[in-house]
Amino acid sequence: MVEQSAVNRLAASSNLARGAIFLVPHDENVVGQAPSDPAVLARNLMSLMSRFPIAFLCCALLLTPTLAGAQDIEAEAPLDRIPLFVRAGSIIPMGPQIEYAAQDPAGPIELRIYRGADGKFDLYEDAGDGYEYEKGEHAVIPIRWDDHTGALTIGAREGSFPGIVEGRRFRVVLVADGHGVGAEVTGSANAEVSYEGKEVQTTIK
C-alpha cells in the first residue's frame, strides 16, 4: 500500500507526459492531480490508493467497472500496467496507428464515449508541421453527447488550412464491459458517421 502523500510527492517531481484530453481541473483529492494519472511512478509499486472527488463517476480504460465518486479505491498497479480512469461523459478520439503525422490523415477516427453524463469535446486539426497554425490555419470540430437521449452531435467545422481532409469517417463506440477498452481499434462500432464538414446528428442506444 502506498500512502497518498508519498504518491503526491512523486507526482509533483515527475516529468511524465500527460495527454491534455484527460486532464480535469485541479482537485486536491485526486492523486496525481488528474484522474487519468494516478502517479504510479516508482517501479516497485504494486498497488495504490486513489481518491475520487464528489460527483466523480468514472470507469477504468482497460476494464469497465463504473466507480462512483467520494470514495477511496485500491487499484492494482503491476510493473506492466498503470491504472487509468476516465470521467463519465468523456469523449476520447482515437485514430489509426501511425508512425508519423502525415501517414494516414484521412483514416477513420474512433470516438469512445463513456456514458453516465453529458459530454463535449472539440477536435482540433492542423497541417501537422510548420507554424502556420499560429496564423489561424487550423480547424475545430465540436462534438457533443447527450447522455439522456443518446444523441451525438458532430458540429459544423470551424476554420480551415491547406491540405485539410474534407470528409471524415467517425466510428462511434459506447464503452461497455469488454467493448471499447484497451489501446486497439474496437472491432465493432455502435455507429458509423460520415462527415463532410456540416453538422451531423445521430442517436445511439
Structure description:
This protein has 205 residues and is mostly beta strands. It has two domains: 4-86, Immunoglobulin-like (Sandwich), CATH 2.60.40; 91-203, Immunoglobulin-like. It is built from one helix and 14 strands, in the order αββββββββββββββ. The protein has one helix at 4-12, and strands at 47-52, 58-60, 66-67, 71-76, 85-87, 91-94, 109-113, 119-125, 138-146, 151-154, 158-160, 168-174, 191-195, 200-203. Strands 8, 9, 10, 11 and 14 form a five-stranded antiparallel sheet that branches. A hairpin with a 4-residue loop joins β9 and β10 (151-154). The longest helix has 9 residues, at 4-12. It is globular, with a radius of gyration of 18 Å. The model is unreliable at 1-45 (pLDDT under 50).
Rounded to the nearest angstrom, the radius of gyration is 18 Å
| Structure annotation, total helices | 1
Q: What oligomeric state is this?
A: single chain
Say which CATH homologous superfamily of the largest domain is assigned.
Answer: Golgi alpha-mannosidase II
The mean pLDDT is: 75
The low-confidence runs, each spanning 5 or more residues with pLDDT under 50, are 1-45
- Classify the helix fraction into a percent range: under 10%
β-sheet strand percentage:
25-35%
Q: How many strand elements?
A: 14
CATH class category label of the largest domain:
Mainly Beta
Principal-axis shape: globular
Distance between the termini: 40 Å
Q: Major sheet, described briefly?
A: 5 strands, antiparallel
Known CATH architecture of the largest domain: Sandwich
Number of domains: 2
The CATH topology name of the largest domain reads Immunoglobulin-like
What is the SS-derived class? mainly beta
Q: Element order, helices and strands?
A: HEEEEEEEEEEEEEE
